[in-house]
Amino acid sequence: MGIRxxxxxxxxxxxxxxxxxxxxxxGIRGLLNGLLGAEKKAHYFTAEDVRQRxxxxxxxxxxxxxxxxISVDIDCLDPSVAPGTGTPEPGGLTYLQLRAxxxxxxxxxxxxxxxxxxxNPLFDPTGITANVAARLILDxxxxxxx
Length: 146
Known about the structure:
By secondary structure, the protein is α/β, with parallel strands linked by helices. It has a single domain, classed as Arginase, Chain A. It has helices at 10-15, 47-53, 55-60, 95-106, 128-143, and strands spanning 23-28, 42-46, 67-73, 110-117. The protein has a two-stranded parallel sheet with strand order 1-2. A two-stranded parallel sheet has the order 3-4. Helix 4 runs parallel beside helix 5 (128-143). The chain is globular and about 40 Å long. The relative contact order is 0.15. The mean pLDDT is 87.
């Protein structure tokens, strides 16, 4: 949309970095999906891809690497699982799908870092989103290679 640096395009900026050899995005959905695979080093799988082809297939497409960094935007989950986010959109991943994918990612190389973003307790009076987020972080760290 003509804005080079914004909260909407960090993965595009990351893919442009010389030392980044690959970027895989999983669980994407929304109106601008077609723009996300434009970078040669970037690959993406929609939430629908995960449903149709399964977590094992999608995980098999993530290349092995010396170092792995995992970034999770909580709104990749369906709002029924994680309503506490600023951009809830129906048709997202389930907790079990994302857990399987995080475990697979963590096994693809040495996990050097992780973040989980977009949890907004103001939109979730029950607190379930924060609980799911904390559990997903534990799942990924528990699967990390030593």
